[in-house]
C-alpha cells in the first residue's frame, strides 16, 4: 500500500531521475513531518478543550514532572522547550494571568525568578495529561503496539546519532 510520501518520492523520481538515489532520506523525514502535523493538531485540540494552548501544556507538564516544589527557572523551561526567550516569556505571562503558574523569587538573590505551578495549574495539568494520553492511545488504535515500540527504539537511535541526547 502506498502513502502520500510514496507519491511525492515517485513524482520527484519521475521529474528528476538524476536525484532518485538521493531521495532515501525523504522516506523517513517526510513521514516524520507528516506524523508530527497529525499529532500536533490533535494535541492542540486536546489542550484547547481545557482552555490552554499546546505550548502552555508543555510548560505545565515540564513543571509537573520536575517534582516538588514544581518550580523551574525560566531558563530551564527555555532550554527544555526549544523556543525563543520571548516565546517562553509570553507563555508564562499568559499562564500567570490564567492562574496556572506564579513567578517566585527565592532567597536573597532577587534577580533569580522561578516559575511555580499553582494548585489550579496542578488540576489543569492532571486533566489535560489524562486526555492527552487517551488521545495518543486513540491515534494509535489501528497500529500494532510492537510496531510502535520498535519504531520508538529506531527513532531513538536516529535522534542519538543526530546529537539529541539527554
Q: How would you sum up this structure, described in words?
A:
This protein is mainly alpha-helical. Helix content is 65%, strand content 8%. It is built from seven helices and three strands. The chain has helices at 4-15, 24-48, 54-65, 74-81, 85-97, 119-139, 145-161, and strands spanning 71-73, 101-105, 113-117. The protein has a three-stranded antiparallel beta sheet with strand order 1-3-2. Strand 2 and strand 3 form a beta hairpin. Helix 2 crosses helix 6 and helix 3 crosses helix 6 (119-139). The longest helix is centred in the N-terminal third of the chain and has 25 residues, at 24-48. The protein is elongated. The mean pLDDT is 93.
Main features:
elongated; three-stranded antiparallel sheet; 166 residues; 8% strand; single chain; mainly alpha
* Total count of helical runs of at least 4 residues: 7
Helix % is 55-70%
Q: Mean of the pLDDT scores?
A: 93
Count all strands and give the number: 3
Secondary-structure-derived class? mainly alpha
SSE pattern, N- to C-terminal: HHHEHHEEHH
Q: Please list the strands of the largest sheet in the order they lie side by side.
A: 1-3-2
Q: Give the overall shape.
A: elongated
- Kindly estimate the percentage of residues that lie in beta strands according to DSSP: 5-15%
Q: Poorly predicted ranges (pLDDT <50, ≥5 residues)?
A: none
Largest sheet: 3 strands, antiparallel
- Euclidean distance between termini CA atoms: 37 Å
Please state the CA-atom Rg, rounded to the nearest Å: 20 Å
